[in-house]
## 1
Amino acid sequence: MRNCLDILERLRILIGNLVKIMDSEQFRDFAKTIVDYIADYTENIRDKPAVSTVKPGYLYDLVPSEAPVKGEDWKTVFADIEKIIMPGITHWQSPQFHAFFPTGNSYPAIVGDLLSTGIGCVGFSWITSPACTELEVQVMNWFGKMLQIPKEFLNESEGPGGGIIQGSASEATLVCLLVAKDRMTKHLKAINPQLDDGEIKSKLIAYTSDQSNSSVEKSGLLGSMHMRLLGTDDQGRLTGPILLKSIEEDRKKGLIPCFVVATLGTTGTCSFDCIEDLGPICNENNIWLHIDAAYAGAAFILPEYRYLMAGIQYADSFDVNLHKWLLVNFDCSALWVKNTNHLVNAFNVERMYLNHSYQSQNPQIPDYRHWQIPLGRRFRALKVWFVMRLYGVEGLQAHIRKQIELAELFGRLVEQDRRFEIVTPVTMGLVCFRLKGDNIWTKRLYESLMKSGKIYLVTASVRSQLVIRFVVCSRLTEERDVKFAWNEVSSLADTITSTEEYKESDNIKYLTHG
């Protein structure tokens, strides 16, 4: 985007002038040079290998064991970026990066991050930077309307709903688990004041599917609440009957069901839990329902995919990562909560030095320190604001549609090769594929791909089958990059399938007989 490069150039000059005021001339030159370096890095990233090939400990031999006593010349430091840092970088923005899920990047977001860092505010309450708070309220309202989530989740609603930018979906899950824990404890004590807090908390239990992200299970560890990983149906979905059976089992054991995490777009296969079935069960049993839509939730800005979030009205909280598919740099995760009073009740710690005359329980004028784990927070809303204004809704929709089309292209290439199979339907930007036959062949293919380092993918297990996940991640990915990736997969598969061991296996007999 030419206009974004122009903004980057203007910011380069601004940063140079700010540094000139605050520091020496060499620091100003260093800052301006780094901004140019960022632009050059982005424009030429396709030429870099996707995966770093350094060995563990490579950097310790290159960097002294102690900091310099006297400051070094900035040109020496700048030269060490290519010498020391870049060899150890796995290039997440490379068009050959197809692992995990996208990590957003764009010039508007880079500029927003730079300006936020330059301003350097810490917006934990309204008074510490009114613009930091109010812009976040507004962009969260914008984003919620783009997704068409129920209005009661928005800060501008009449009720206590509201949105906040957390660092990651992992943080959002942990925040909501802790709030659910506090809410349930207070609810039970209100019914029976004789109950002991510790006794109640020791009996609380949470649920999610065995396909949910690892961070969900980790939230249970961090929040001291047992997290049951429930089985899924043949489509990888957590269903109502599975959840209800588990709740009934645990109640018979004297446990207290407290928290459910449902996923829209699982990490392994991008499956979608049955929210319409899970929601009423959670509501009827006073269980907090959190929806983790970290990746796939971004696609709900497209009308043709909104049917996948049917049942969201039952949720207590809902999270989508802007830093995955919406061109906003990490970290930036959008969390909406239907009743933000529960957040304040769980996390409010008052000190005289935190008070100000504009304190309010109004979600439109929040003190966000009550809505999160840390006290301090960055001005993340700036990069969201820049991305949404410069791309517009239509630009973001076009970006996601393009990446879905590229994934479908890769899927067609896989289907044309009879040695391979696609294990789950191509969903969003994800293709799960494997070499037919025993897992050993897919394992060897993946090991060859990682050793080559030309493209970066990761594996998953689907019904005991090892699959390789191909995800369209970089905003720079084009059709030529998809074909490059397939050629790499296909050529390395040639090496494996040409061996005598492969030819003599049951796999080749299976192929021969169709």
## 2
Amino acid sequence: MKALTATVRLQLHSDFTLDDAVPLVPYFARLGISHVYASPILKARAGSRHGYDVVDPTQINPELGGEAALLRLIAALRQHGMGFILDTVSNHMAVGGADNPWWQSLLAWGRRSPYAEFFDIQWHSADPLLAGQLLLPFLGSDYGQALQNGELPLTFDATTGVLEVAHYDHRFPICPADYGQILSHSPQLQDLAQHFTALRGSAQPLIDAQALHAELARRVNAGTSLEPALAAFDSSSEQGFHRLHELLERQSYRLASWRTAADDINWRRFFDINELGGLRVERSVVFEATHAKLFELIERGLVDGLRIDHIDGLADPRGYCRKLRRRVDSLLAARPVEAAVEHFPIYVEKILGVDEHLHQDWLTDGTTGYEFMNQVSLVQHDPAGEAPLTELWREVSERPEFEEEVRQARRLVLNASLAGDCESVAQALLQVARDDLMTRDLTLGAIRRALQALVEHYSVYRTYINALGRPAEDEVFFQQALLAARQTLGEADWPLLTQLEQWLGGQRWRSLPPGRERKQLR
């Protein structure tokens, strides 16, 4: 196989599949391309044009031609000695809709689902309306209005035997243990209603529910009417309205307007996109489940390099990259001889700030090149234009420095689309403060102000705190932000900055004895 010298990016989707790329391979070879670099190929949401909204990481996307098409493309590449680099998404999956079986299981069973710990969810909310529930901000209007307008009908899938609430493309499954409440309104299904209700005391409710779903589907498909049960929960009547609301209140989720997401969201998204839910890939079970197909393709010699999407979304990028490197290196020995590689490159999508460098101990081969694109762009700009542009900026904006515009933009994001995320961090820090007699008088309002001031002045994307605190590479950026925040805040809030310096990596949690204090700080 050729050494990695030049790549060509393929954006795959239903109108440009893996098979569509095959006849282009000879042309790429004549151009001197050594590796094809493909967008994500694992199963994405139906109709996806980019592939970053993965719904099932265990299979090749059928819309791209599936595994058979991948094998045909790899065979064509090998004829020209070319390699295959794959884009992969470790940070998130597509949620909402009805495509993601892991997410649907989570909604149906809540914390009893095997996937409850896969997604980054804050189950213990200070909001009494969210106690033990997942906020689902997918409604086009306020919850009460949607209920009143009949926009949340109770429906039945005769193929799977699943009862769910529909809202346009969304499907919100009802917990099977609550089916008895519904089926009791259908005279012919009273016995089955009791069996579903008994799931609450079952030692293996998910397994038992599978047989009950199949039996319910069989009876309905054989002619047993479910209409009386569904009609009893028709929200167009007063009784139906209250029944449906009470049923939904019993679920592991709370349906809400999309407008609530910014302030009340209690799970991590990809920035502020409700349809992309963050994964806890730092957990071994999640890492293995989400990467199993990927590792199989690497071991079979079908993938020769990786590009990791949005590495900074992960809780521990360093730990993830090092773990990934170890696993990949262990797989290389089992590859077929004809697919042997001396080195398997791993690149990360990482936005580097001015004077920032990729941490060498991540054991990756570099970034995807945003900083290089900036350097190329500079070649096309005349340095003499900076002075007149700066003067024009000051005249139009009526602000002396562009940096103030940056701070205002960050402030806007923190108080709007990411307000809920910022509040979660503040609440977590408040719990840390309350656990120490020396800091328990610090208030939530002061923590919010200091935290926001620190973020507003931060010049790089993030820091990489670990058990030993802040790495030396991050310290200069943290101290710069701390100094600038001190100049912004009133003197009364300065003690908070001192505490933030300690809490956010200044104090090594590994140095603390095992117990609540160490756990809270971490």
## 3
Amino acid sequence: MDRNSITGLGLITLILIGFWFFNKPSQQEVEALQARQDSIRKVETLMEQERIAAQLSATESQNIALPEAAETLDSAQSALLAQASGLMSPFIKGETTFTTLENEKIKIIFSNKGGKIYSVELKDYKTHDGEPLVLFDGDKNKFGFTFTHNTRIFNTNDLYFNLKSQTDTSVVYEIASAQGEALTFNYVLPPDEYMAQFAVQTRQLQNLMATPRGTLDFNWYMEMLSFEKGRSFEQQYSGLYFKYYKDEVDWLSTTKDANEELRTRVKWIGYKSQFFSTVFIADDAFSSAVVKSEIEKDENSPFLQYNSSEAVVPVDFTRNETINFKFYFGPNHFYTLNSYGEELALNQLINLGWGIFGWINRLVVIPVFNYLERTISNYGIIILLLTILIKVVLFPFTYKSYMSSAKMKVLKPQIEEINQRIPKDKAMERQQATMSLYKKAGVNPMGGCLPMLLQMPILIAMFRFFPASIELRQESFLWATDLSTYDSILELPFSIPFYGAHVSLFTLLMTLINLAYTKINSEMTQSTSQMPGMKGMMYMMPVMFLFFFNNYAAGLSYYYFISTLITVGQTLLIRRFVDEKKILQRLHANQKKPVKKSKFAQRLEDMSKQQQIQKRKK
């Protein structure tokens, strides 16, 4: 071969390599092709299943009366079923049996159909009407792993497992072939625990089961039951929660149907009602997941919402594996959830508010509430003491707010004199004169607002704390039979829009005391001639609270009632010991003193004078 031939072959080789490099499929194209092939395989499998089902239907439709013909029919059906199911045919049909495990806290019933948890009862709790509190039972909870065998798609939820062993704390179900291939579900319920352990064990399954991409799809569907009296309130605090691996907890919308594709690793998925949760936790993590929640619109339905999830579990059937999970079946009690560690962050199932509001609840309110709970059994008294403690801590802010309002009140005649002297069309000049008066008197017009602003985080934190506190559930106080839901003293024969069909007495008392407090405050403020509609708005807010809080927890309305009542008492007490004449004398003395200007204020004044001089020259 001469030199030119070698050169030509080399060039052709480089051209082929370059053509391959520039035209090779990307990773996304490879994944898309794989997904397309998987879809085609699923379609072909479904078509095969439909064909077999059609053959079964045709065989059953034959009108044969002879016993021999019936035996022939059964044989034909069995043959077709065996042909479709392959080695899985012994597990397609069977008799459902149940096994029970229980400890001091929960009772779990298992079913051999699906080798799954059939129902869970929380022993220490009852529904609002006194029935046993069962989180789910029967087909209201479906979970299983999807795989293929003999070109057919199976889900463990539909297969009949064999009960391999049982002890006081464990149950083991198994699907096994004569060749030693086995899929085992091992459940363990430790004593005095809400957390059950669940292990999936595989043995030589490469010929019995197949999965795309080396993963198992875990499918979980649950119909969330209602347990509380206040349905709308309970539904508002229920939802589908999930935690990203080594990251934050998130949730789907609680007010509308929602779904989300979680493309990163997921640590756990939880179905949460107002006070109870069912959480499926991976010891490692799910590769990804798709979650979906549908809200029940019918108010007479026993269900709140319908949650479903499909999580991807890594698995390798070419070797024997044990994949560990956990189930949490229990109350949304802060310290109970917190006991399972910061890594799981199960306490995030309790929505205590974001940012500073959540920190106030976790670091202050809950510890104090828990401390009082140890020595006092009546939760109405606990709320009263908690409220008094909070008001004592906030008293300096209340006092400062009152003094600021008192100063504004004694300056009211001078403010009105400025308003009469300067016409309305000179609003800027009137405002400057007013601010000059405040400055000379040493009054900060925002002095009353800032203390109130500092109290707002606590008010909002308590708004989140009471509806989420399972401690108040079914605890009575005075006429309220359950502090975690509304207190009804009168059921109406009709429903009032935005109000409801009942009258909550604590909400009514809260509204009345807020109206009284609004009247006291209005007497402390200056003339409202500058904002004529403001006075009406101040009285509208308590009336709006009447509608807003009527369906809320009685404990929350009771807290706001007591809190405002104490504030009114503090205000009247301060008013009795504060001499407004002395305040006015002090302000007059301040007005006679020379006002020190800051450098910034002096610069502004110099700039203003220069602008006026320039205008005169023009």
